[in-house]
Every structure is written in C-alpha cells, then in structure tokens.
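Quick note —
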Amino acid sequence: ILKSAIERELQFSSLHHYMSQGYFALQDYTKAIKHIRLALHSDPENVTYLNQLGENSVIASNKIKSLTLDEKNALLESISKSIIEDRSDIIKANDKDVSEAQEKLSKSMIDRLQLNEERIDGIIQSIETVISLPDPIGNILFTNTRPNGMKVERVSVPLGVVGIIYESRPNVTVDASILCLKSGNSVILRGGSESF
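Predicted structure written out below.
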C-alpha cells in the first residue's frame, strides 16, 4: 500500500507544490489549508486518492491498535530482517536516487539522503532499540479518586492515524514508521520537496 501510495502521490504535482513550500509552520496554517483546498479541488483525482489513503489508514489503525506487544515487536523484527536481506538493493536504489538528485539538491541535502552500510546499520540499530522499549500503550499515567469514590484514570492509548511531513531522509522514514507501529498507530508519511 505504501509503495502504491507514494507512486500515486508523485502524480499530484500541484498538491506537492503547496505542501512543500513551507506552509506548514503554525502561523501559516490557514494559508496551508487554503492552498491545499485549491490543489485538491483543481483535480478530482486528488480528492479520491486522499480519501482512499485516509480510509486505508483508518482500517490499518484499527488493526494495529489491537496488536499485542509481542505482535508489534514481531512486525518490527520483520522490518529489520527485510532491511538486512535487501541491504544491497536498498543501497543501489538509493545510489540511483542520489545521482538523479545531484543537480537539484545541495551537497548537505545529498549527504542526508545518502545511504551506506554504516547508515543501514544505524537504521537496524534504531529498530532494535524500539523493539527493546516497553509497550507505550495501556500505561496508567494518572489516577484520581473523586469525592464520591469514583476512580478516574488517564491511560495511554493509540492516537489512530498519524500524519507526518518531514525532510525525506531514509532513516527518518524508518524511524517514523517504527515509532508509530510500536505505539499502535498507522502513519501517512509525506516526504519534503527534496524527494520529488
């Protein structure tokens, strides 16, 4: 689903333009909504695509939030295993992406996009670190007993669907995904303009 969503997203350049122009600073929220609405309504396919993406994310969220800690950790292990097994293919694909970006991006941006063996090891290590963390769901954060004897608790729960717009660095893609999975959430990732 993620691969097809990314491929589909690449087709909506007007939406990308508005989402990549820095309109998501808090003070520009109203401006961002205005421009995104214009972009969406300029092409009905945008609306259909985003509605489907949202619906799929809610379905995934409902499945993920019911997973046990062991099930979430098993999924994280499978992500790590896939990265280890596909390491050389990932680096080759990244080399191709970086060579295509040479003309468009600064050296510092190229460096952030570049993957190598050491950075792949760092990604794998970050997955192992997240696996080792306790389950963030179901923890009692606050307890209060009311004068009438009723006990009130604040318990950590998944948010549902998390949307992240971020600088398109491969390690951030993995970090955002694994943190959302561990916390029982689905995620919609939107890379920055440097990814197009």
